[in-house]
Design goal:
Elements lengths: L2 H23 L7 H21 L1 H29 L1 H15 L5 H10 L5 H18 L6 H25 L14 H21 L3 H24 L5 H25 L9 H15 L6
Helix pairs in contact: 1-9, 2-3, 2-11, 3-7, 3-10, 5-9, 6-7, 6-8, 7-8, 7-10, 8-9, 8-10, 9-10
Length: 290
């Protein structure tokens, strides 16, 4: 086992171990007071927005605000990254490239396959299949929420990635056309994360299930990040930026779901809306040790 194989095994073991610890200790964790207060204020703002202007208008405001923040953060991150390319990205790229000569053939074949978890066709299929399956699961709640948010999330990621690629314009490695930020990493975090969130919100299970769901998303993100770097598809900072990009978009779409999955007081389906509000309040008081 050469160094690059050892690195891959180590990353997978660490990600798996962190997930196991989170699952086993989930019942003992509580959100810090500051995080709980932010969650409570967000719940009040979302509820007030829905009461005053309706679900769709409030969700649109959340979406545009999240998109604006995402563009600003990635643009701010992209320019300094360009300046470090020769001193950081190129040496890391050359190290991975040199390690390919001694890596086992089965290892290389495995990562050429695993990189596809963030591929365009694969995530397109997951987006459509996830929307349809979740529409059935949410039929007693609001079937149209997953049908709306999953395709919007996919289109948003692809559109903003193309925009950021043009705005930052940092070039690509000599082996591929992989650009800033990594779309594969962003799609894994966003699409897998959003599907997991919608499933967990539908069932409203205990904290261990929430920990297991997010641990699964984290493991998939690690697999995709290593695959894109090992296969020389991206500069390593493109990979880190892709994870950040996907995380910001996921937070935005989670906020949109929180708004859409509510009722205007006195409207039809009020019981469902009250249940969604209670779900939000329970999730506010999760992770971080006492």
């Amino acid at each position: 086992m050469n160094a690059v194989m050892g690195l891959g095994v180590g990353l997978l073991l660490v990600a798996s171990a962190v997930g196991v610890v989170l699952i086993r200790t989930a019942e003992r964790w509580r959100a810090p007071a500051a995080v709980a207060r932010i969650g409570q204020r967000w719940s009040v703002v979302a509820r007030t927005g829905v009461e005053q202007v309706g679900r769709v208008s409030t969700a649109a405001v959340v979406l545009f605000a999240g998109v604006g923040l995402t563009i600003a953060v990635l643009w701010a991150v992209g320019w300094p990254i360009k300046l470090t390319e020769k001193h950081f990205d190129v040496p890391v790229f050359e190290w991975f490239q040199a390690q390919h000569e001694t890596a086992a053939a089965w290892w290389s074949r495995s990562w050429r396959l695993l990189t596809n978890i963030g591929g365009l066709s694969q995530t397109q299929f997951l987006t459509v299949a996830g929307a349809l399956v979740l529409a059935v699961c949410w039929r007693a709640r609001r079937w149209w929420v997953p049908v709306l948010v999953l395709p919007v999330a996919y289109v948003l990621e692809k559109t903003l990635q193309d925009l950021l690629k043009l705005v930052v314009d940092r070039g690509h490695p000599p082996t591929t056309l992989g650009s800033f930020p990594s779309g594969g990493c962003a799609r894994v975090v966003l699409i897998y994360g959003l599907i997991v969130f919608l499933v967990l919100r539908w069932r409203s299970p205990g904290r261990r299930w929430w920990a297991a769901g997010w641990s699964f998303v984290g493991l998939c993100a690690v697999i995709q990040a290593y695959a894109r770097t090992f296969n020389l598809e991206h500069w390593i900072t493109d990979v880190f930026a892709g994870l950040l990009f996907g995380g910001l978009l996921l937070a935005t779409m989670v906020g949109v779901v929180h708004v859409l999955d509510r009722d205007v007081p006195g409207g039809a389906g009020r019981i469902t809306g009250e249940r969604a509000s209670r779900d939000d309040e329970r999730r506010v008081s999760a992770p971080v040790a006492r």
